[in-house]
Specification:
The structure is a single chain. 34% of the residues lie in helices and 22% in strands. The protein has 269 residues and is α/β, with parallel strands linked by helices. Strands 1, 2, 3, 4, 5, 6, 7 and 8 form an 8-stranded mixed sheet that branches. Helix 8 packs antiparallel against helix 9. The protein is globular, with a radius of gyration of 18 Å. The structure holds S-adenosylmethionine.
């Protein structure tokens, strides 16, 4: 607890990220990932393998962008840094662990950016969603959305639930859906190869393996059928609850394309 507080104090982050809770979440993520190293290992390995598969066969390797880079737990940073001329890590918060892991690579840089587009709304600075992706995504060859999609609505929806209204928004479900859909729409508009890794579903299981509750983490938005899927034991028994464990279903695409639509780069001119 004291260690978390010290970590929170020294984590370099802009004031809005502190005010909105992104710094606290980053500190909690770091603690949990340390405690759950063994149960998380298969998930992290599968996510990294998906990113490696995304690199394969990519002819042009100038710029790779990682959205939701976080701790770089699920991102093969060494493989990316050696495959691309430059790698840009994008997150609301860049924790020390990620800075340390990328330290050997002079071609890795960081952009601090709110990827929900809701920051201005949440802070009362604007009444509509703001830019979703940083400009560097536009010319990139590979854009990785790294276990980010389900995370994007969490803090904004919690804030709307507490406040009752944010701008014109009063319905937390619709707000969450809008944030998830907007991220996928923004990815679909890029010319880069998109590598998407996201958890979609949370099952709360008891010690008899019975599912007591199930939550759709993507608010009913379906990114389409995934070529890779696995379970991630996010919280083993005793982590979040004594007699329940949380298991997330993860979907991953080395080369994601929006369902029912071919990306712009593949449409005939
Ligand atoms: C579950 S973590 C992803 C794991 C990360 N790829 C890793 O390897 O540690 C989700 C990440 O999304 C980031 N995030 C959540 N909401 C965000 C937002 N609105 N803008 C930018 N980053 C956000 C968090 O700061 C966190 O680092």
């Amino acid at each position: 607890m004291l260690l978390d507080l010290a970590h929170w104090l020294v984590l370099p982050a802009p004031l809005p990220a502190r005010r909105l809770g992104y710094v606290g979440d980053s500190v909690r993520l770091a603690s949990r990932s340390r405690r759950c190293r063994a149960p998380w290992a298969p998930h992290l390995a599968a996510a990294k393998a998906t990113v490696r598969a995304a690199i394969e066969g990519l002819a042009r390797r100038d710029t790779a962008v990682v959205l939701g880079s976080g701790l770089l737990d699920d991102v093969p940073i060494d493989a990316l840094a050696s495959a691309f001329r430059r790698v840009v890590l994008v997150d609301a918060v860049h924790p020390w662990r990620a800075r340390w892991r990328a330290r050997r690579h002079p071609n890795v840089s960081r952009v601090t950016h709110d990827l929900s587009g809701a920051q201005g709304l949440l802070l009362g600075a604007r009444d509509a969603f703001g830019p979703l992706l940083p400009p560097v995504c536009r010319g990139a060859d590979l854009v990785v959305s790294a276990n980010l999609l389900s995370q994007l609505p969490i803090l904004p929806v919690a804030r709307l639930e507490a406040a009752g209204r944010i701008g014109a928004w009063t319905d937390p479900e619709a707000f969450g859906r809008r944030i998830v859909a907007a991220h996928l729409d923004a990815l679909a508009g890029l010319s880069a190869r998109i590598c998407l890794v996201t958890d979609r579903d949370e099952a709360e299981e008891d010690r008899y393996g019975r599912v007591r509750e199930r939550i759709d983490l993507l608010y009913g938005i379906d990114p389409g059928p995934a070529p890779r899927e696995w379970d991630w034991e996010l919280a083993p028994f005793g982590e979040a609850y004594r007699d329940r464990r949380l298991v997330h279903r993860v979907s991953a695409w080395p080369d994601w394309r929006p369902a029912g639509e071919r990306p712009a780069r593949e449409r005939p001119a």
